[in-house]
Design goal:
20% helix; 11-stranded mixed beta sheet; 6-stranded antiparallel beta sheet; 12 helices; alpha+beta; Jelly Rolls
Amino acid sequence: MALLCFLGQFSFSQVRLPRLVSDGMVLQRGTRVNIWGWAAPGEPVKVRFNHRLDSALTGPDGKWTVRLSPMVAGGPYDMVIEGSNRVIVHNILVGDVWVCSGQSNMVLPMERVKERYPKEIAQSANPAIRHFFVPTRYDFSIPQDDLPPGHWESADPNTVLQFTAAGYFFAKTLFERYHIPIGLINTSSGGAPVESWMSEEALQEFPDYLRTAKKFRDPLYTDSLKKIENDINKDWEDRISRDSGMTGKIKWYDAAYDASAWPTMPVPGYWDEHGLPEVNGVVWFSKEVEIPASMTGMPVKLFLGTIVDRDLVYVNGAFVGTTGYQYPPRRYVIPAGLLKAGKNRIVIRVINNEGRGGFTIEKNYSLTAGGSTIDLKGDWQYKVGLSTHPMHGGAVTFSYQPLGLYNGMIAPLLNYTIKGVIWYQGEGNVGRASEYRRSFPALIADWRQHWRQGSFPFIFAQLHNYGEVKKSPSESSWAELREAQLQTLSAPNTAMAVTIDVGEWNDLHPLDKQDVGKRLALAAEHLAYGDKKIVYSGPLYTSMKIEGDRIRLSFSNTGSGLMSRGGDLRCFAIAGADGKFVWADAKIEGNTVLVRKEGIREPVAVRYAWSDSPGGANLYNREGLPASPFRTDDGN
């Protein structure tokens, strides 16, 4: 009976296709391409495409696959799949398919950088650049064979806002160079460490991660964690609901509320620096702003930098927007008619979960409309609505755990024929660089093994600069992670885009995704497209030679020569036998750099840009590509 039921579920099955094999898809040129799906066991399936007919017989598991012969770039075409039913896939292009993966800096869409790149967005219409977004999904039990609902989109000023920004500029650069269609499969997830993207086979080399993955496979375990997390969240929201600003007869955001007696503090800044001890809970901010008549009667953009952690914003008593966590830029639209000529009141309810609360400095805090801008920096009035103990402990991010994202977001892609991978990740592994030296190359090998396409190009962005600039040389977990990425270049058919100059010290998600995309594309031109003459990388340290009281450094990828950008070379540190590093003098001599420091007669090691956020690192090649940070010592 069970067997009859099993067969019965397929007896009337129609041909079904995976989400990726759908209208608007891009197929990989120049190689055999998989087209696959499901139907009744033993059912013959025909695929008609580009004047060719291929066929397959569905297996006992209901799966079928055909392999199309290599094709040249072109389209658009339609594909007809026939079994017991007929399916037509429309508007197909043949070009190059790139998987875009990693964490939040690959996730970050063009919408987040629209103020920086308005011209690029306005001119983005290009049916030959296409994007498939894969939503975050984890599974600790089995590799999934299909994706959640999704679709291919062609670039235009509306759709491009949801494209990965780094991936879009990568695709745009390649299209402008080669004029072939580019398909992007964006399978990335914010905060995800490298181990979350690795298969169970790859995790055999990392027993601790494998044990964790197996623990998360147990629904009783995961349900218990979810209950703890839900209880913590409920407790926190219950406490927050007792905020005095929301429980009184008149809410503090109300236009009728009088905040004139509130004390003041400067915004932006962290409030523990301005007379308010660390507060976990709610702090309200209020500011009266004089609005000219020329800015009324139209929508007005309100920029409030970034805020730790969560905010709700009101203007003249009306709610205008909220953001649920600290990283996104606060960009709200005040509807036409809400602002009036004269005095207007802006109120921000800031909810701080734990640690330092406040407003990130050196960000945009302004009102903008009709070509006019009002600066909102300066004194704001404030009042504590609730002070409580921090919201900490118990929270588990399931998508960060080993194996989950591989099963949910990579396994369903493995039949899709690709050109290569671009990868922007590493922040989630900062502090574990020694392990990353093994796990990152293991991931690359793992994906290549499961994709069964040989050593396809794997191109990655090195971590950008982030954090406060240190006055003296010091140890750095970010620098160690960059070093692990640099060492991964020993894996075959890999390349790295150095991004040490595109970050923002006060933002984990820097806005300059154009340079990142262009540098990834340069590496692809060399690695994947065979342009061996192109200078695709900045200088990479290769060796050192001690010459008396100086150390001479040699580099690869010097292009047409080394250069400093913006004055004398900076961010070089040198150490003598005591191992203590101090800032050093450095100068370019040919394709080498000489480093010395008065008073150090017997130097032993040099470091360059060795910090979380190197201030003014300026060694480049003449093609304008920055040198990778490095150290000549092993850190011991």
